[in-house]
């Protein structure tokens, strides 16, 4: 299976679709109906209210939307990793890894604000990888800030990714105050127009523009399934990080910087769930994309193919056992 996804062939897109459906079949058998939560932004609240009438009669609409998002994110991540030559040869391993990783936790397959944010963050990652020596970087920098600003209206803790953006600008571009100001302008633009709307509707209050913020540890239920999932996430990540480090000297300088950006992306995504936290794993889905990038290296670089094969089939076996035997997705 790994050898198939290493090949550059359009047929792999169809194979990935069947692979994803095979792994995520329980999400259709046991549809999760997304409810409005306080941590979600006003834009996501509007989306859920729009879907509510159809969702009551046809609950499968929620897992269908979630699967479309997951598959689109997997293919987009693969395209940008291949386009920017983050791995030495074009392949479909990032998409395979993404679909596999997001099957470790049932909550990562729910239609949720963090899952929707993932799509925006992957596009932002692509823009950040593009701005190195780009002749017209100002427009891209503004779009990056605007995307993060809009993300906070879907899931307010996503505003934390501003930290990632500014670190990425420092890594990819020489410091230019006008570019940083453009990024800030992009971030604040949605708030400017929303403030105008609130002013004309007589609802202009600081609390309506900037929701509350709390930072605390989530209280998560411990289980053997959680421990194995964490193990299957961390071991390939550490091995992939080793192979990235081992191949840095053969990479172009923008590729080296790109891997630094992906690592910071992962670190910030780990912190976001502590902001306005809930006691579920939904928020951690934002770490899936950078994890998948490093996992792809674990499947691609080892000279001996036995270990990646064992790791892959062990992960698939765990997902199937977790789904069908333990009833983890019910």
Summarize model confidence as the mean pLDDT.
86
Structural classification? mainly alpha
**Strand count, sense and closure of the main sheet?**
none
Counted by DSSP, the helix tally is 15
Distance between the termini: 28 Å
Descriptive account of the structure:
The protein is mainly alpha-helical and 330 residues long. Helix content is 67%, strand content 0%. The protein has 15 helices and no strands. The chain has helices at 2-5, 11-23, 25-29, 42-57, 61-83, 93-101, 113-130, 137-154, 162-172, 177-200, 206-209, 224-246, 253-271, 288-300, 306-325. The chain starts with a helix and ends in a 5-residue tail after the last helix. The mean pLDDT is 86.
How do the strands and helices of this protein lay out in sequence?
Elements: H1 2-5, H2 11-23, H3 25-29, H4 42-57, H5 61-83, H6 93-101, H7 113-130, H8 137-154, H9 162-172, H10 177-200, H11 206-209, H12 224-246, H13 253-271, H14 288-300, H15 306-325
List keywords for this structure.
67% helix, globular, mainly alpha, 330 residues, 15 helices
What would a concise description of this structure say?
The protein is built from 15 helices and no strands. It has 330 residues and is an all-alpha fold.
């Amino acid at each position: 299976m790994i050898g198939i996804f290493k090949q550059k062939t359009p047929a792999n897109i169809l194979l990935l679709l069947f692979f994803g459906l095979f792994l995520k079949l329980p999400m259709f058998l046991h549809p999760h109906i997304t409810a409005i939560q306080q941590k979600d932004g006003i834009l996501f609240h509007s989306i859920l209210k729009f879907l509510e009438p159809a969702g009551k009669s046809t609950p499968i609409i929620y897992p269908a939307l979630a699967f479309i998002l997951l598959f689109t994110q997997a293919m987009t991540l693969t395209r940008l990793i291949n386009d920017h030559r983050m791995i030495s040869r074009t392949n479909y391993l990032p998409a395979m890894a993404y679909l596999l990783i997001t099957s470790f936790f049932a909550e990562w397959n729910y239609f949720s604000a963090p899952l929707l944010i993932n799509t925006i963050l992957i596009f932002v990652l692509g823009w950040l990888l593009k701005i190195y020596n780009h002749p017209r970087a100002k427009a891209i920098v503004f779009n990056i800030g605007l995307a993060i600003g809009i993300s906070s209206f879907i899931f307010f803790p996503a505003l934390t990714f501003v930290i990632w953006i500014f670190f990425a600008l420092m890594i990819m571009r020489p410091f230019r105050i006008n570019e940083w100001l453009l990024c800030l302008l992009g971030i604040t633009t949605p708030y400017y127009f929303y403030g105008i709307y609130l002013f004309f509707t007589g609802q202009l209050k600081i609390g309506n523009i900037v929701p509350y913020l709390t930072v605390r540890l989530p209280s998560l239920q411990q289980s053997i399934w959680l421990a194995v999932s964490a193990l299957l996430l961390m071991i390939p990540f550490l091995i992939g990080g080793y192979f990235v480090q081992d191949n840095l000297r053969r990479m172009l300088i923008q590729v080296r910087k790109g891997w630094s950006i992906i690592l910071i992306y992962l670190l910030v995504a780990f912190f976001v769930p502590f902001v306005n936290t809930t006691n579920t794993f939904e928020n951690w889905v934002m770490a899936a994309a950078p994890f998948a990038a490093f996992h792809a290296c674990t499947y691609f670089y080892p000279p001996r193919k036995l270990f990646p094969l064992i790791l892959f089939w062990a992960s698939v076996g765990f997902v199937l056992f977790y789904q069908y035997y333990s009833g983890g997705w019910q």
